[in-house]
Design goal:
alpha/beta, Rossmann fold, 2 domains, 7-stranded mixed β-sheet, 5-stranded parallel β-sheet, about 15% strand
């Protein structure tokens, strides 16, 4: 039987095409979500992995080979993709005269200890300056707290950032963005009976962010459900989800706000009933595993569903530049790195996943390190990130805005709607 932690990591990897929130483990206790840097770490001017002409960075990515016999998922060649993007920077002179020296850390998604082992390898054995890549839940804390190593990426929540002892910048907020995003549901919530459902590891996201945000809009949930069944026990998850559905229907709820990882089980259990409330999702990541499943489903569960998520455009110029770079380095990918929204549901392989994450992570690291200048250390790196300001990230339509109060870039969410003909989410306003 696959261990619980591994199952959650697998779910996280497969459900997030942009390395965002993991099912059942993405959010923790929420404190001040408006100011992630209220406890900005005091950073020493240390420079592990930095020489006069090189900077060593760790690159973390999911290794799916251990689960290929049970899950049809292929994100492409992470290492080759990162190498191609880093080589382009190095061929142009590097960053302030320093070439980037990548050290790769593949995380076996079937191993509960893999993330910790990779962290120790990169920080204590390789002594890298910073780590970039695919990090889930609390995994960044091994780097920025325990080993005081800079990080680019991962869900940067206010609570976790308060524990950081090294620079940390990301384009993900780990659920903290949901509060203001709920305002986008205002029209859909008007005059409705609303239920809210989430998983136990996101209980504080439900109670401290979602429910208060709903009440600000004049909405008091008629029912709230928190799934605490063991994720290793599919029957228990289905049974408890079924109980929630019965309660929601009995209460007259015609709208359900589905928080984070709960999207992995609620729609599947709704299929077994005639109850069809309108579903409002707090992200488009976890639900992707359901709507892209190659198995047969009754997708009337998704009728008029909407979600909040950042505005992404595959034709964004920086991303297209990354695509050209990777295609030149890996000729077999020529013409295959197309808009994932145009692919049939269930398509595999999807090298777009590794390309998308690598392009954004490398771009953000390069921008901050370049701003830090020749005197590169953790202190100058943090100061550079705080002063980066408005910054166009690859694939994002809206600019990030990095500051001491927004090490996550504060990228605003927009409203998406489910399109049944393509089984995709498209922009609600165009």
């Amino acid at each position: 039987m696959t261990p619980l932690r591994s199952r959650r990591r697998i779910a996280a990897v497969l459900a997030t095409a942009a390395a965002l929130v993991a099912a059942g483990c993405a959010a923790e206790d929420k404190d001040d979500t408006s100011n992630a840097a209220s406890g900005a770490p005091s950073i020493a001017a240390v420079a592990p992995g930095v020489t006069a002409d090189t900077v060593k960075i760790g690159v973390v990515y999911p290794d799916l080979t251990a689960v290929k016999h049970i899950l049809k998922s292929d994100h492409g060649d992470y290492e080759a993709t990162y190498r191609a993007l880093i080589k382009k920077i190095n061929d142009a002179g590097g960053i302030s005269g320093r070439k980037i020296e990548p050290v790769f850390g593949a995380i076996n998604v079937a191993s509960p200890a893999a993330a910790q082992e990779t962290c120790v390898k990169l920080t204590q054995d390789e002594k890298v300056f910073a780590v970039i890549g695919t990090l889930n839940a609390n995994e960044p804390l091994c780097y920025v707290q325990t080993n005081k190593t800079a990080v680019i990426g991962g869900p940067l929540t206010a609570k976790n950032y308060g524990q950081a002892q090294a620079p940390w910048f990301s384009d993900q907020r780990g659920g903290d963005e949901v509060g203001p995003g709920i305002d986008l549901f205002k029209e859909a919530l008007a005059g409705k009976k609303v239920a809210v459902v989430g998983v136990v590891n996101e209980q504080s996201l439900v109670q401290d962010i979602v429910v208060p945000a709903l009440r600000k809009l004049g909405v008091t949930p008629v029912e709230t459900g928190i799934l605490d069944a063991n994720f290793r026990d599919a029957a228990a998850v289905a049974q408890q989800t079924g109980v929630f559905i019965q309660k929601f229907e009995a209460s007259g709820a015609d709208t359900v706000v589905v928080v984070g990882g709960m999207a992995a089980s609620l729609p599947k259990e709704l299929e077994k009933t005639d109850y069809r409330p309108r579903l409002l999702f707090t992200n488009t990541n976890t639900i992707g595993a359901y709507i892209n499943d190659t198995a047969q489903h009754d997708y009337t569960t998704m009728t008029n569903a909407i979600a909040i998520a950042p505005n992404l455009d595959w034709n964004e110029p920086q991303l297209q530049e990354c695509i050209a770079t990777v295609e030149a380095a890996i000729p077999d990918l020529k013409g295959k790195l197309t808009d994932p929204n145009l692919l049939p549901a269930g398509t595999t392989p999807t090298p777009q996943v590794s390309l998308d994450g690598a392009c954004r992570n490398v771009a953000l690291f390069k921008a901050i390190a370049a701003k830090a200048g020749k005197d590169l250390n953790h202190q100058t790196f943090q100061q550079a990130g705080f002063s980066l300001g408005a910054f166009p990230l690859p694939r994002f339509v809206d600019k990030a805005n990095y500051s001491k109060d927004a090490p996550h870039g504060a990228i605003p969410p927009v409203l998406w709607k489910y399109e049944p003909t393509t089984r995709k989410f498209v922009l609600a306003n165009g």
